[in-house]
């Protein structure tokens, strides 16, 4: 019996080791990018940083672009969780404001990761059947805000997301003065916090 279980234990240990190596590589890429920018995240730099051979890195991600895509996926997972936490804690008080604040805080706190998520070339689509679950989860937290806001909650969610992304990206690239950030956020929240009213049925003349 012991001999029969041994191959399974070896396989499980190899799987754990592979997952640990993959996580180490992602953390290293993220750390280098935040410190020195994505142009300095190379397979050679990663290999030197974490003492893995370059073939090991290629076996996990296939290319440098694969590493960047993996970091982006982690970013969407973390963003989704941050938005979910903010939305649920706000309950009925001001979930739109809570999600907006959480989104902009995330973008400001992790600029290199945010750049990987939205500005660098990734090998997966948005808004498609093949969109990774992490991206769907992050967007679902925004969509949840507008489920009762008229007949087109997806459109409202997309516009709200686009507005948040515009503020985050223009702030990250220093196109918008930070002095008016609170005012911009407050105004955006006000615009998206009022549910669209359904048209009243026309009463028939008796």
Brief sketch in words of this structure:
By secondary structure, this protein is mainly α. The protein folds into 2 domains: 1-62; 68-194, Tetracycline Repressor, domain 2.
CATH superfamily label of the largest domain: Tetracycline Repressor, domain 2
Per DSSP, the total helix count is: 9
Do you know the CATH topology of the largest domain? Tetracycline Repressor, domain 2
The level 1 CATH classification of the largest domain is Mainly Alpha
Based on the coordinates given, report the CATH architecture of the largest domain.
Orthogonal Bundle
Low-confidence blocks of residues: none
Biggest sheet record: none
Give the CA-CA distance, first to last residue: 86 Å
Strand content: under 5%
Number of strands: 0
On the 0-100 scale, what is the average pLDDT?
A: 88
Structural class: mainly alpha
Over the alpha carbons, how many angstroms does the gyration radius reach?
A: 22 Å
Helix content: over 70%
Shape field: globular
Total domain units: 2
The H-and-E topology, N to C, reads as: HHHHHHHHH
Write the layout of secondary structure elements.
Blueprint: H1 2-36, H2 43-50, H3 54-61, H4 64-90, H5 95-109, H6 111-118, H7 133-143, H8 153-172, H9 181-193
Helix pairs in contact: 1-4, 4-5, 4-6, 4-7, 5-8, 5-9, 8-9
Q: Can you tell me about this structure?
A:
The protein is mostly helical. The protein has 2 domains: 1-62; 68-194, Tetracycline Repressor, domain 2 (Orthogonal Bundle). 70% of the residues lie in helices and 0% in strands. The chain contains 9 helices and no strands. It has helices at residues 2-36, 43-50, 54-61, 64-90, 95-109, 111-118, 133-143, 153-172, 181-193. Helix 5 (95-109) packs parallel to helix 8 (153-172) and helix 8 (153-172) runs antiparallel to helix 9. It is globular. The N and C termini lie far apart (86 Å).
């Amino acid at each position: 019996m012991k001999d029969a279980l041994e191959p399974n234990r070896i396989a499980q240990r190899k799987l754990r080791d592979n997952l640990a190596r993959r996580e180490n590589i992602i953390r290293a890429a993220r750390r280098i990018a935040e410190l020195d920018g994505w142009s300095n995240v190379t397979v050679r730099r990663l290999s030197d940083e974490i003492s893995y051979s370059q073939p090991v890195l290629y076996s996990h991600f296939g290319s440098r672009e694969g590493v960047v895509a993996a970091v982006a996926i982690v970013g969407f997972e973390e963003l989704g969780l941050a938005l979910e936490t903010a939305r649920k804690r706000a309950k009925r008080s001001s979930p739109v404001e809570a999600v907006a604040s959480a989104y902009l805080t995330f973008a400001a706190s992790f600029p290199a990761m945010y750049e990987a998520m939205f500005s660098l070339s990734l090998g997966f689509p948005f808004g498609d059947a093949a969109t990774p679950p992490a991206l769907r989860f992050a967007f679902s937290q925004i969509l949840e805000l507008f489920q009762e806001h008229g007949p087109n909650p997806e459109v409202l969610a997309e516009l709200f997301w686009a507005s948040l992304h515009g503020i985050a990206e223009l702030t990250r690239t220093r196109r918008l003065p930070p002095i008016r950030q609170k005012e911009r956020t407050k105004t955006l929240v006000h615009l998206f916090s009022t549910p669209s009213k359904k048209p009243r049925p026309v009463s028939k003349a008796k």
